[in-house]
Amino acid sequence: MDLDFKHVLVTGAAGFIGFHLAHRLLSEGYAVVGIDNLNPYYDVDLKKSRLKQLEPFSNFQFYEIDISRLNDLISIFKEQRFEVVVNLAAQAGVRYSLENPHAYVDANIVGFVNLLECCRHFNVSHFVFASSSSVYGANTKMPFSVHDNVDHPVSLYAASKKANELMAHTYSHLYSLACTGLRFFTVYGPWGRPDMALFLFTKAILESKPIKVFNHGNMQRDFTYIDDIIEGVVRVMGKLPEPDPSWSGDAPDPGTSYAPYRVYNIGNNHPEKLMRFISVLEQVLGKESKKEFLDLQPGDVPATCADIDDLYNAVGFKPVTSIETGIRRFVEWYRDYYGIQD
Predict the structure, then answer these.
(1) Is 157 a catalytic residue?
(2) What's the distance, CA 199 to chain centroid?
(3) Which of 71, 204, 290, 308 has CB atoms 3.0–4.6 Å from 210's, for a disulfide?
(4) Where would I find the beta strands (DSSP E) of 57-149?
(5) How would you classify the pairing of strands 272-273 and 220-221?
(6) Which pLDDT tens digit goes with each residue over 275-311?
(7) Mean local confidence (pLDDT), 151-164
(8) Model-level pTM?
(9) How does strand 84-87 pair with strand 60-64?
């Protein structure tokens, strides 16, 4: 069933994906309320710069609040009437979850259930939320499918995203709240996060500093360009999940449900070797990198690849942007934003 919607809440609106989603929706005339706590996990000025891109839109409202504070959320839900809520607010980062686990519980667990409660009590039609490819954890069968079991996470971040999926399913079961989870695969592009590989590599290479190449370069990632991610999210927002009549408790399918709940991968379906990714970046920058080869980090996985058949069958879309195009667009943005000449 398709949903006709006009009024959207985007959490994490100052974040990488949240900003791009809000900008796309605002450009198409939707009324968007954005919330973000502007936490200092990475450069707050970058987050504020993203928000400045949204301020000219008359159909945009922003609230600086934390989703772990239930009363603040309730006040917004009372004031507004959202048809769709897209939760992109989270404490991100696999490696940081080893250093500061409590940040993940506050944002990714407490904040998430607060949003579910608000969606339930204020009759939201569709709750769409960011999950992650990290939920596949110790799985090695490629490509990763939503129909595979994902009970072996290797980081607290991954465990918190798996918990999100479980909590959302529970609310779909108990209250018939339509919920769709989206497992993003290594998102990159303009306005990206400074803690991600492409940003770190670009900064280091331009400053003639060595880049850290983990697992001695033997990594593969399903790098997915931001515009492809946003196209997938927007299409899913208008697609209400329906109960699967063929679902059986005798052979439970993790990817579907008897409840109005679905989970999809959004990935490029084309894993790239890390060394090739670096090579393309070097070509775009016109400068070779100095490489520091290191072991695989705790919480990391050596390879990711998304099976996107379910996404394509549901909304008729699959990512198409090559790393050559995506990296070039990122570097153009990076040079412009930081005022770096060729």
Answers:
(1) yes
(2) 16
(3) 290
(4) 60-64, 84-87, 126-132
(5) antiparallel
(6) 999 999 999 999 999 989 999 888 788 889 999 999 9
(7) 93
(8) 0.96
(9) unpaired
Measuring CA to CA, which residue among 178, 311, 168 is closest to residue 233?
311
Task: Please give the pLDDT value at position 4.
Answer: 85
Query: Could you tell me if 180 and 261 are in contact, meaning their C-beta atoms sit under 8 angstroms apart?
Result: yes
B/e letters for 32-61, b = 16+ CB within 10 Å, e = fewer, are bbbbbbeeebbeeebbeebbeebeebebbb
For the record, the structure tokens of 261 come out as 């709940």
Q: Which of 231, 225, 235 is nearest to 315 (CA)?
A: 235
What residue type is 210 in one-letter code? P
d(CA 126, CA 334): 35
d(CA 212, CA 285): 17
Report in angstroms the alpha-carbon separations of 27 from 24, 54, 57, 84, 238: 5, 10, 8, 17, 17
So what's the pLDDT on residue 91? Answer: 79
Q: Once rounded to an integer, what is the mean pLDDT over residues 70-81?
A: 96
Which one of 41, 136, 157, 171 is the catalytic residue? 157
pLDDT tens across 233-269, in order?
Answer: 999 999 999 999 999 999 999 999 999 999 999 999 8
Please give the single-letter amino acid code of residue 188.
Y
Tokens 């939760």 belong to 87
